[in-house]
Amino acid sequence: MAYEPILLARVNKPDSTRLEGYRIDGGYASFERALAELKPEEVTTRVKDSGLRGRGGAGFPTGLKWTFLPKDHPGPIYLCINADESEPCTYNNRILMEKDPHQVLEGIMLACYAIKSRCAYFYIRYEYGTAYRTLQSAIDELYQAGLLGKNILGSGFDLDIFLHRGAGAYICGEETGLIESLEGKRAWPRIKPPFPAIEGAFRKPTIVNNVETMACVTQIMRRGNDWFKSMGVPPDPKNPRDAGSYGPKLYTIAGHVNTPKCVELPMGVTIRELVEKHGGGVWKGLKAKAVNPGGISMGFVDCNLKLKDSDQTEYDIPLDFNGPGRVGCLGLGTAAVTVIDEQTSMVDVLHNVCQFFAHESCGQCTPCREGTGWMLKMTDRLRRGQGRKEDLDILVDVSDRIGIIPGTTICGLSDGAGWPVKTAIRKFRKEFEDAIQSGRKSVVKSLKLLGAH
Amino acid sequence: MATVYVNDKPVDIGNERLNCVQAAEKGGIHIPHYCYHPDLTVVASCRMCLVEMGDLKDGKVAITPKVFPGCQTPVKDGTVIVTGDYAKRDTSLPVLGYPDNYKPGDRAKKAQADTLEGLLINHPLDCPVCDKAGECKLQDYSFQYGRSQSRMIDEKNTPPNKPEISSKITLFTDRCIMCTRCVRFTREVSGQAELSVVSRGHHSEIDVFPGEPLENKLAGNVVDLCPVGALGSKDFLYKQRVWYLKTEDSVCAGCSTGCSISADSNKDVIFRLRPRPNPQAQGYFMCDEGRHGYHYVNAAERLNRPHVRKDGKLAPIAYTDAVKAVSDEFKDAIKKNAASVWLVLSPFLTVEEAFLAAKWLKESSKQVKLALGPVPFVGEDDTYPKDRRGKALQPVRFTIRAEKCPNRRGVEEVLRTLQGDVITFPKVIEAIKKGDAKAVFLAGGYPVKGSFDVFSEVKAENLLLAVSDFFTSPATELAKYVFPAAAFSEKEGTYLNHANLAQTLHKVSHAPQETRQEGQLFQDLAHRRGLFNLAAVRKELAKEVPFFGKLADQVPELGVKLV
User: Fold this and answer.
1) A390 touching B, CB under 8 A?
2) Where in chain B is the domain with CATH 3.30.70.20?
3) pLDDT tens-digit map of B32-90
4) How many angstroms away from the CA of B400 is the closest CA of chain A?
5) Does residue A262 sit in the same domain as residue A123?
6) Residues A323/A299, Cβ–Cβ less than 8 Å
7) DSSP string of A33-99?
8) CB-CB: which of B46, B154, B178 is closest to A378?
9) Cα distance from A52 to chain B (closest Cα, Å)?
10) What's the complex ipTM?
11) Residue B200 to residue A362, Cβ atoms within 8 A
């Protein structure tokens, strides 16, 4: 039976971005009900019990994060929405914002009610012009309808939502980098502790949540926890720290597939099913060689590598919060699946990846700043056919030692920069060695220069 | 009472809130660091201070399997810190109960070597032409903790140098390791935030905004803060290799803040002054006025031998002859009319010099009058941080005082005891103009020209005027005897700052030619035998001027508060 999308249900419906259209589909009813019937703590408990984990990448339980706010804080408490969706090949938030902004906004209003915040900042990346305009007109509609502003629906609850455009940096997607950027500073991630829930934007308690998480909050409050828990993967009983992967998830399929698109599926679909069934298979009749399970920072899956004691390959791993981790990837990330076909050189892929992270490293911590730059220079040399065998060992060494997991940087950007490098070289070492031995140069088609920002 | 273990060594940190670097420092163990500075906010970005950490519980250590930045991580009772230097620990101490498969120090050591490898990737390694070589933390730590060879064979980034960021400071952009100490200093201490980081990743650079160079009065501190040779003082640039410099503790004579400083000299020439951290005096920094205010010491036009007026002109005279003549003439003057003999003590003299000078004439006659020389004031006290518009902000981190002399308080205390009250300089001029003053000794030593300009309108015949000063002035034009003064760097003694902190001056360089430090001069004038001995004079001073009682004992390095 085909899965009927919930989060994307209203995409491409007439008036999907307008308040009236959303109202017709039952919009803001759960917000109104929450205002009238539920206490903020009850909303938090509902979200906590639903098992909703943050959709931004790290998968931290959302309700639990809300409970980290100091009790009885006199305020202000802020909610920041992270719409700085900059991970390459990821565009699920964009669809939500452009096609169904009110679903996200209702989630924000519910979240603000739950955490007693009277002010939400919607941090949207600069490049999302359409999303920005759509959201702004949606917010304007809400103010006109009296759903935002002072004393909403006579409940005594005040809420303002401010839309803030970023200036084009990947690091602004890191939650403390986002807060710094919001405050008007350079987006250098802060040292933690204190975590944002204690001291965040403007030195006040702050919760940072992803756009898709907010859409999920809306649906959880509308459909209940049983609906949410009816989908996905329950916690691994052997791992007491696993919180399970419940609910629907937006997967984006990109790269060398026939039909790149964003699909909504219950958590835990395998890469193979996603690519072959929903993505229309690999293009030009080719086979998949490698796949990024959740944005390039999660590392690579080798589609031909057999899993231990099984006929299945890494291509068959499920895309839940634990699946990619079992094959050496960093995690589920943004669930943006990028497919690389068998004719593409991994040297080129890796160079592209390194270029991205060297360009986006904020430059604060030494290991990341110098490590990403160095890896770029090395992969660039590999591509020019001047690689040395020891370069591969150095690349693995450098990528292993940067990040918050070994403890050498402030934020996780460099974990994300290191992971694709080490997984690519460990899983495709033969290909790299052959490239070095043959001294083969990559064919580089020079693209026309485009000014992005 | 909390105990922290650093490389197995128990360190008692009491009730203090410390981070790992501070706690280890307390136990005498140095954790290398670049971006951490005790007087700036912690950013934990250089990642040089990485340590391994754990908790001691029931004799067993639970080690966390990652490394921590020591500057950011607070310690509490039972915290175990293992640094990269674990192999160099005091092996006489019992080893803590580490887990079996744990090799203490290995991870931290590797992490530090990795950080250094990273820092050197785009560093030009132009140590032979770098001013910082010899006192460079990148050199020192690379030698101690780094790899012997670089594995990087690619081209380095070569961002252009920026000599235009300030009139006093130049930036060698390629040498920078992005510790951002300078940026934080201009934001937090000087306040005007001239410096910032531009670009991202390995192309990050320190820069100023176009048309807004780094010109605040504390700017020079960024050069000291820079752990590598990226920020260079134009005043010192290419003058000396630092290993030729002799460093001596001293006190800045620029204003009444009395910053503790280190004075660097080579072959009796001072090359630079740097702040010496002293929480009692000024903290960690000093102002540029003080920092660059030593040039008069090396000035060519300085008086460098005694002179006597012959046929209306000043002619050189031997020091011993000058001393004898002045001593005799003042003795005669006191015999004739002691009340018409004046001694003017400048606030640039040390406490001991003022005391010896006062004793010289007061011992001949109680009627001799002692006065305080002109006290230079410029504007008002200048506090930092300031905002972009130049408005001073609270809390104050640094004060440049309007009173541009180091020891008014000290000289006043001597005067209060030996004279009874403080007679100000205008009264001296009045007395000279009226003819009440017949013999005046002006103990000057004013590095700022113009302090004695008032003498240009004084017409006094039959006035016996003796002056000791750095430069010729209207006063020396009238004087019969002129002695060359010794600079703060050429003498030993005590300065008392605005907050009654007594600090010791050490001799940094020798005074030129026939110049004697005033302590010696007044001792010779009073026919006291021998060389000036600071300890002996202090003992005598402490006995006769009770205010200075604490000087009888050894004065600590950071000075002693007298009130």
Assistant:
1) yes
2) 122-244
3) 999 999 999 999 999 999 999 999 998 899 999 999 999 999 999 999 999 999 999 99
4) 30
5) no
6) no
7) HHHHH--HHHHHHHHHHHT-B-SSSS--BHHHHHHTSPTT--S--EEEEEE---STT--HHHHHHHH
8) B154
9) 29
10) 0.91
11) yes
Please tell me the distance in Å from B174's CA to the nearest CA on chain A. 13
Q: Choose the closest CB to B114 out of A171, A373, A401.
A: A401
Q: Are strands B50-57 and B2-6 parallel, antiparallel or unpaired?
A: unpaired
Residues of B in Cβ contact (< 8 Å) with A369: 118, 178, 201-202, 204
Residues in A touching B146 (Cβ below 8 Å): none
CA distance B53 to chain A (A): 11
Q: pTM surpassing 0.95?
A: no
The position carrying tokens 């409940």 is A155
Total tally of structural domains belonging to chain A: 3
CA distance B556 to A443: 71
The answer to whether residue A192 neighbours chain B at the CB level (below 8 Å) is no
Average pLDDT, chain A: 93
CB-based contacts of A311: which residues, under 8 Å, 6+ apart? none
> Tokens 């820079």, residue?
B226
- Provide the residue range defining the domain that includes A330: 246-341
How far is it, in rounded angstroms, from Cα B71 to Cα B50? 8
Disruptive mutation site among B73, B195, B202, B204 for chain A (greatest number of A CBs within 10 Å): B202
Domain co-membership, A408 together with A432: yes
Whether residue A416 lies within 8 A of chain B, CB to CB, comes out as: no
Fold exhibited by the domain B122-244: Alpha-Beta Plaits (3.30.70)
Q: How many residues does chain B have?
A: 563
Is A405 in the B-facing interface, judged by CB distances under 8 Å? Answer: yes
pLDDT tens-digit series, residues A334-347: 999 999 999 999 99
Q: If you write DSSP's letter for every residue of A395-450 in order, what string do you get?
A: HHHHHHH-STTTT-SSSTHHHHHHHHHHHHHHHSHHHHHHHHHHTPPPP-PPPPP-
DSSP A277: I
A333 CB within 8 Å of a chain B CB: no
Q: Decide which of A341, A359, A382 is a domain's last residue.
A: A341
Same domain, A335 and A405: no
Structure-block tokens of residue A187: 């987006």
- When the candidates are 3.40.50.740, 3.30.230.10, 3.40.50.10540, 3.20.20.70, the CATH number that belongs to B307-376+405-492+511-555 is 3.40.50.740
Q: What is the pLDDT of residues B383-411, one digit of tens each?
A: 999 998 989 999 999 999 999 999 999 99
A370 in B contact zone (CB under 8 Å): yes
> How much of chain B exceeds pLDDT 90, in percent?
82
The domain over range B2-112 is classified in CATH as 3.30.70: no
The maximal CA–CA distance of chain A, rounded, in angstroms, is: 74
Shortest alpha-carbon distance between residue A368 and chain B (Å): 8
The three-point CA angle A394-A397-A398 to 5° equals: 85
Report the residue from B48, B66, B155 with minimal CB separation from A407: B66
**Which of these, B107, B227, B115, B237, lies nearest to B166 by C-alpha position?**
B237
**Amino acid identity at A304:** N
Q: Which candidate from A363, A406, A407 shows the least CB-CB separation from B200?
A: A363
Chain-chain contact of B47 with A367 (C-beta, under 8 angstroms): yes
Cβ of A358 under 8 Å from any chain B Cβ? Answer: yes
Task: Mark whether A202 and A68 lie in a shared domain.
Answer: yes
Q: Which amino acid is at B153?
A: I
**Chain A residue numbers touching B50 (CB-CB < 8 A):** 407-408
CA–CA separation, B28 vs B21, rounded Å? 10
pLDDT digits (tens, 9 = 90+) for B93-136: 999 999 999 999 999 999 999 999 999 999 999 999 999 999 99
Whether chain B has a CB inside 8 Å of the CB on A365: the answer is: yes
